[in-house]
Amino acid sequence: MKKQIKTVGMYGGKFYPIHLGHVYAMIVASTLVDELHIIISYDDEYEKNILSNGSRLPHIDYQLRMRWWKEITKDLPYVHVHAVYEKNDGMFESWKLGSAGIKKVVGKPITHVFSSESAYGAIFEKLYPEANHMVIDENRKKYPISATQLRNEGVYKHWDMLPDVVRRNYVKKVAIVGTESCGKSTLVKNLATLYNTNFVEEHGRSFYEELGSYDTFEEDYLKIAYRHKYFEERALYNTNKVVFIDTEATVTHMFLKEYHNISNETLRMISKEQKYDLWLLLEPDVEWVDDGTRAFGKYEQRLSGNDLIKRMLDENGVDYTSIKGNYHDRLTVSMKLIDSIIK
Fold first, then answer.
1. Is 203 annotated as a binding residue?
2. Is 322 annotated as a binding residue?
3. Class for domain 171-342, per CATH?
4. pTM tops 0.85
């Protein structure tokens, strides 16, 4: 019996950024060959100076694009991901050098070349004369989107056109901080409901609820901060543009100082290095509620804790917005600020 020739496909592009049209083309291509090689053609200088110039998106390093593709295809063992440098100057010689790099990483004869534009046919015929050029959804009927649109118009306008692994890179993180009983949890849950998205609860409370005791030890606070960071990362999955964070490492560090009158260098460094897109500090001007776990209900204590957290934020160079007033006022002001960062 004559041995059947194995078909090898190549699907390449800048993928700057990846959208669902790319994913669709990849899936279709993978059903037409025995193995498919995704090629990320990159030219850092061109991407930084030309593609990113005037773009609504920051530069996307090719290594991040590789990670995106590898996560998207992690359950497809017949799909392989590579990055190949290709100078983007429009010269055929550069295309030729790029194709040599592609052939090298694929390591076997390419039988099929896939794209979404028939205009590439003449070029591919010269670069891959033994391969069939197959065009997939040239008119973008399945997913009417392009990477150019995303760069020009922003990702939030076309959120439904992004794979989840790409969305996570553009989710806006809003940290809501303040002393105890200033309305953080209420505001976070209200905002998450309104924006139809995820939130991260104050982990200190759940930490002690799991123990069945609210007696605090110095070593608890670092554990709380670490676990909170884990849940922050998980909250980015399947999130709708923005995620709300109820307290963070600065507030945890503040409580360590208030309850035990000590500081922790690791907590301080976590507080300094963490990044959020918007910080909302709730002033303690709503009624203090004794839920059986709180200890600083006196007016002077509330002001002292509020001043402490402000000093800590200032030391870390955090640009935060103070919000006062009743619950309606807090919600209204917060929504206006959030809308400004996701439009």
1. no
2. no
3. alpha beta
4. yes
